[in-house]
Structure formats: C-alpha cells, structure tokens
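Thread: Newbie trying to understand structure tokens

Hi all, I'm a second-year student working on a class project, and my supervisor (Dr. K.) asked me to get a predicted structure for one chain before our next meeting. I've only ever worked with sequences, so writing a 3D structure as a token string is new to me. If someone could post the tokens and maybe explain what I'm looking at, I'd be very grateful. Here's the chain:
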Amino acid sequence: MKASVAGEPHWHENLSGTRTSVAREPQWHESLGGTRASVAGEPRWQESLSGTRASVAGEPQWHESLGGTRASVARESQWHESLSVRRASVA
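---
Reply by user tm_fold:
Sure, no problem. This is what the structure looks like when written as tokens:
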C-alpha cells in the first residue's frame, strides 16, 4: 500500500513492516527485518536491510534496493518501485 500526494511527499507503506512520512519533513520509521529512523529537518537514518540507501541533507532523495529498486526526487512526489510489481507516480 502506497499513497502519494502531488507536490508533497506524503506516503504510507506496508511491506510486512510500516513506513510513514510527513510532507516537507523527512520523518519516518521503518521495520522491514531491519530498522530505520529519521529526525524531522535532518535526513539522518540508519538501515539494516542487506540493501543500500543514500540520502542528501536537506533533500529527501534516496535510493533503495530491497530485491527491487526505489527512487525519490526531492520536493516532488515522484517515485518508482519494483517489488514484484512496478509503480510510478509523477507530482
């Protein structure tokens, strides 16, 4: 389950774990066999999903590999995901 609002990176996802995000504030927590945490205004995070993720300060850009791929562009609710299926959203 994923939801995205154009212009605002709101989303919620459940992949046998949970993820939440607040628009303009990269707050999130995730549990997918690992853990991840971020503080609003500071895209700090920790991850252990035998995959990779990168984030740029001030911009919620990231890339992830969880048997698939995911990409997000800062300030735009664009994303692509491949986790058995593919989805795309454009702001």
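A couple of things are worth pointing out once you decode it. DSSP finds no helices and nine strands in the chain. The longest strand covers residues 59-65. Feel free to ask follow-ups in this thread.
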